[in-house]
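Predict the 3D structure for this chain.
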Amino acid sequence: MTQRAGFVALIGEPNAGKSTLLNAMVGSKVSIVTHKVQTTRARIRGVAIEGEAQIVFVDTPGLFRPRRRLDRAMVAAAWTGAADADVVVLMIEAHRGLTEGVEAILEGLEERAGDRSVALVINKIDRVEAPKLLGLAKEMNDRFAFDETFMISAEKARGVDDLRAWLAGKMSEGPWLYPEDQIADLPMRMIAAEITREKLTLRLHQELPYQLTVETESWEERKDGAAAIHQTIYVARDGHKGIVLGKRGETVKAVGKAAREELTAMLDRPVHLFLQVKVRPNWLDEAERYSAMGLDFSDGNA
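Done. Predicted structure below.
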């Protein structure tokens, strides 16, 4: 059989379930999943195999109304991911329906979709009754000419196989873009930093999830097969440092333990994780911080 390959962009509002779907499609964790909005920053590519087709997923940041430089860079990255893809998948939440945010995305699609295929994915279908689902599907398709509509629960992997099979059929003939055993094109250093940031976001709740970033400073392969990973957590204020550290360092210790356990399971070997917290008041305006997150600093000027 002939090999096929191509790129699929997952777009939608923050918290629509894009990262959960990406991980379900790939069969492994390559993207942060939290209940906080705007947690995905970089366009993370996950690679899935379906028969002879290789599907490269671009998990874009959620599309929302930007207020800060980081927000603008994230939104620009999302639309760039859509423009670079062969197929675009718009995810919406079944219980929220056609929101103002979704309406704005549809307007953007009308301008940017061109002749590429666009599929609608209605996620979290277990939250609403069937008649409401059918009504929402009709309302969305009246609003935009989608090539196909799928109703799924990304969290429970319901409907995911049908979507993956359809996407495989949309890939163009040609050699695979990545080795068969590669599930993401992010360096492990960045994936490790994202895992630690996820644990921080989960632990800190609403306190300062968007005012911090994590960078992997060094990665040492030890003779005993273990990996020694040193990471820095950058925060914007002195008060934030205290929150991240916690009383007697309990918060950062708990975050480090959770991140280390996940990295150990992912790498299937011992991991020694060392975290330090640094205050950088203007990190949100430093080009190198954006590069480390896979974002374009200049996009923040838009």
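The radius of gyration is 20 Å.
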